[in-house]
Write a structure and sequence with these properties.
Blueprint lengths: L3 E5 L8 H4 L1 H4 L4 E6 L6 H4 L7 E4 L23 E6 L3 H11 L4 E5 L10 E5 L5 H13 L6 E5 L4 H10 L3 E4 L4 H7 L3 H11 L1
């Protein structure tokens, strides 16, 4: 009997009846439900089977999600200004809530804004033509060295590399993890604390 069983399907919840009883039958085995083989995960493929741990496909080692460039640290800054580019007010509010206790001020932002934030977060889908153009405009607009984080529905490897070529420093899938977002915008101490809390 294996120590770990990983289940991955194009539609993970299809014909799940034969799988749902396994954790009860073999309690010493760790069961993983691989979500997002073709999309971002729960938003389309549903929640994991009861008794299974959720694992997104892009969490496996070897995937590069950050562009290795020198980035400014927010250490010592009294208040971090973060601009969020999104069509959704809910997204801006959700990110603001996630970063509120770290001394960050989050506001809606676009390439024509007069404010120069210390970090920019861009919500996108698949980095199509308009989104790619918008990212390029943002990179030209912000102060050199300002980290730009791209939140994307399904971070295919080729899309990630294209985002780096255009000017993104980080690419995070949605739904994002708070600690990863904190690290991307330069709040490294807060990110470490969030990771310790999650552990």
């Amino acid at each position: 009997m294996p120590g770990v069983v990983a289940v991955g399907r194009a539609w993970p919840l299809s014909h799940a009846g034969d799988l749902s009883s396994w954790p009860t039958k073999w309690q010493a085995v760790r069961f993983l439900h691989l979500l997002g083989p073709w999309c971002e995960g729960e938003g389309r493929t549903g929640t994991p089977i009861v008794g299974y741990e959720r694992v997104f496909w892009d969490e496996f080692a070897g995937t590069r999600w950050s562009n290795p460039q020198p980035q400014p640290s927010s250490a010592g800054a009294e208040r971090v200004e973060i601009g969020v580019v999104s069509r959704s007010d809910e997204t801006v509010q959700a990110i603001s809530s996630a970063l509120a206790d770290c001394g960050a001020r989050v506001t809606a932002y676009d390439a024509d804004s007069a404010v120069c934030p210390s970090a920019v977060i861009v919500e996108a889908t698949q980095l199509g033509g308009r989104e790619a153009d918008q990212l390029a405009r943002l990179r030209r607009r912000v102060v050199p060295g300002t980290p730009i984080t791209l939140l994307i529905d399904f971070p295919r490897a080729e899309t990630v590399e294209a985002a780096f070529d255009i000017g993104a420093n980080w690419v995070l899938r949605k739904p994002y993890e708070r600690a990863a977002l904190l690290r991307a915008v330069g709040l490294r101490d807060a990110a470490s604390a969030a990771e310790r809390h999650a552990a």
